[in-house]
Amino acid sequence: MATVDIRAVRKTYPGLPFEVIKGIDCAIADGELLVMLGPSGCGKSTLLRMVAGLERISQGEIAIAGRVVNDLEPKDRNIAMVFQNYALYPHMSVYANMSYGLRIQRLPKAEIDRRVRDAAAILELEPFLQRKPRALSGGQRQRVAMGRAIVREPDVFLFDEPLSNLDAKLRTQMRVEIKRLQQRLATTSLYVTHDQVEAMTLADRLMVMRDGVAEQIGTPMEVYTHPATVFVGGFIGAPAMNFLQGEVAEGGAVRLPGGVALPAGTAAPGQAGRPVTVGIRPEHLAPAGEGVPGLPVTLTVDLAEALGADTLVHGRLAGTDTSLIARLAGHVQARSGEAMALTVTDGAWHLFDVESGRRLADTVGRLAKPAA
Ligand SMILES: Nc1ncnc2c1ncn2[C@@H]1O[C@H](COP(=O)(O)OP(=O)(O)OP(=O)(O)O)[C@@H](O)[C@H]1O
Ligand SMILES: [Mg+2]
């Protein structure tokens, strides 16, 4: 078991005019599962591969179990990596696939056998040990790939989108299995995905990345309830957070388009005239008259999507061009052109600086900050 320390790490590739990783710091605790999440090309795989030793670190350092590994070969880092493309040897049995790395290391036969059987038991692969990969389902193959990593008894697991080749149902199953496995083995893990649900459910902590920068590192709930930037607010949560242009008025009230205003004390005092971006999550809009205390707004409905459990109502803040999406209960009906009276849950708004996109102040009301 081990900690992983990423200190002021930067990466440039020869011939690329920009830095791919622009100075990332993160201390991952022993046994922790850190998920790296972000859009395609933001540098997730690059960061993971630097931890693995498959890419050089241009600046900064990475330590595993307190030992700086910048100049260590991958094989000397005691890590195990599971990729999206799990590349099993087709001509070898499951047993041979799982034991391959250990045989290369020339471990004693009895030790290899113990490790393979332990891993097979954990992964429920015992009935398949003599089969070839082609006679396995996608999920079973993925478990063999996991087994190959487990038998190495590494200090750290590195996962790069290990589930993205699986269909949606299998992905959900494997997600739960990975979580269970990681809790049971308590092996420090770094896990790359661009699937939000995977990220939210697996992570002890999330690193939300954008263009080589860690925009926010925190527990999934911290990131969800207190996004540090407009980008994080918009990236986490589906449908995405609504953003409105606001302006601070006297007493820290915030004027929104269409004559609506967030109450006094929402913004810090003495900022009258300052433009702000206001974020409101779709689930923090509810039909008026349901007794939820909050701010009344009127939505001019464009269209409604009935998803069963929920209905997503798309529209505009009445009398404006400001688009809003409300996530309402499945039984709610809405017709195009209709004016719908809604309530924004009290305090469920987020204020961001217009220029930097950074979170301005903690909102009052029901969005209490979770205990750290
Ligand atoms: N070997 C390389 N040489 C030059 N540029 C590279 C190399 N590998 C990656 N890059 C560039 O570095 C940036 C980050 O790539 P990376 O693979 O880390 O992204 P990612 O976040 O894993 O994306 P995805 O979600 O698509 O897998 C991209 O702009 C990519 O084009
Ligand atoms: Mg990648």
What integer value in Å does the Rg equal?
25 Å
Mean pLDDT comes to: 92
* CATH level-two architecture of the largest domain: 3-Layer(aba) Sandwich
Instruction: Give the strand content.
Output: 25-35%
The total count of strands amounts to 20
CATH class of the largest domain: Alpha Beta
Ligands and ions found: adenosine-5'-triphosphate, magnesium ion
Describe this structure in words.
This protein is α+β, with helices and mostly antiparallel strands. It has two domains: 4-227, 3-Layer(aba) Sandwich (Rossmann fold); 239-353, Beta Barrel (OB fold (Dihydrolipoamide Acetyltransferase, E2P)), CATH 2.40.50.140. It is 23% helix and 31% strand. It has helices at 44-52, 94-104, 109-122, 138-150, 168-185, 196-202, 220-225, 230-235, and strands at 4-11, 21-28, 33-37, 59-64, 67-68, 79-83, 156-160, 188-193, 205-210, 213-218, 242-248, 254-255, 261-262, 275-280, 285-287, 294-306, 310-317, 323-329, 339-345, 350-353. The strands form four sheets. The chain has a six-stranded mixed sheet with strand order 6-7-8-3-9-10, sandwiched between helices. A hairpin with a 2-residue loop joins β4 (59-64) and β5 (67-68). α2 (94-104) packs parallel to α4. The longest helix is centred in the middle third of the chain and has 18 residues, at 168-185. The two termini are 24 Å apart. The model is unreliable at 363-372 (pLDDT under 50).
